[in-house]
Design goal:
alpha+beta; two-stranded antiparallel ribbon; globular; five-stranded mixed beta sheet; 41% helix; 206 residues
Length: 206
């Protein structure tokens, strides 16, 4: 491998659909539109959202993340009259946080850059981090850990005494933007064709 080459930026999308009425048929149609941009799609039907890995699609379409997300949003609106809110980032958790902070009709993109990731994460409340619920946030607050930046700055051993080993490791990695897709061979991205959903196991390197 060329020592001067750089790995291509990671771009994971979390998109929430906001239709006037919800039907299973429409949800399948919206997923098909997303699949037209990237075939690596993971539906989240419980809240009418989906994840999509845009990393390879950026090269195929010859666009940056903002441009490709804009194309997707326009297609959803033009084909089905559905607004969406979208968040994109180098990890699954950052994409989810960005999407949660974005109103319908807009998109938030956090580039695969350590400084941009840190700036996005640090000031957010601890409860904004995926996996940190209200109860855990209150527990952390008793120790003066109130923001994502506080979690990142706290020694892992200290967090482990508060949260337990596994939960502390996950929170610490996510707070520092190190938690990549969180997918293993047991997880799956879904390849969507029409309204039919078939799950194909996928290994995603960290």
């Amino acid at each position: 491998m060329n020592p001067t080459s750089r790995p291509r930026p990671r771009a994971i999308l979390r998109i929430h659909f906001h239709p006037a009425e919800r039907t299973d048929e429409l949800y399948g149609q919206l997923l098909t539109v997303v699949d037209g941009i990237s075939s690596r799609v993971e539906p989240q039907p419980a809240d009418w959202s989906a994840y999509a890995d845009l990393t390879g699609a950026l090269t195929y379409w010859g666009r940056d993340v903002e441009g490709l997300v804009a194309v997707l949003r326009l297609r959803l609106l033009a084909l089905h009259g559905v607004q969406c809110s979208a968040g994109a980032g180098p990890t699954r958790s950052i994409a989810a946080m960005a999407a949660d902070a974005t109103p319908p009709g807009a998109a938030t993109v956090v580039r695969d850059d350590p400084y941009e990731v840190a700036a996005f994460l640090r000031a957010k409340p601890a409860s904004a981090l995926p996996g940190i619920g209200p109860k855990t946030a209150r527990t952390l607050a008793r120790y003066g850990i109130n923001t994502v930046g506080d979690i990142a700055d706290t020694r892992l051993a200290t967090l482990q005494r508060i949260l337990g080993a596994a939960a502390a490791r996950q929170a610490h990695d996510r707070a520092r933007g190190l938690h990549r897709l969180g997918c293993s061979t047991r997880d799956a991205y879904t390849h969507v064709r029409g309204a039919r959903l078939s799950v194909t196991p996928t290994t995603v390197a960290p």
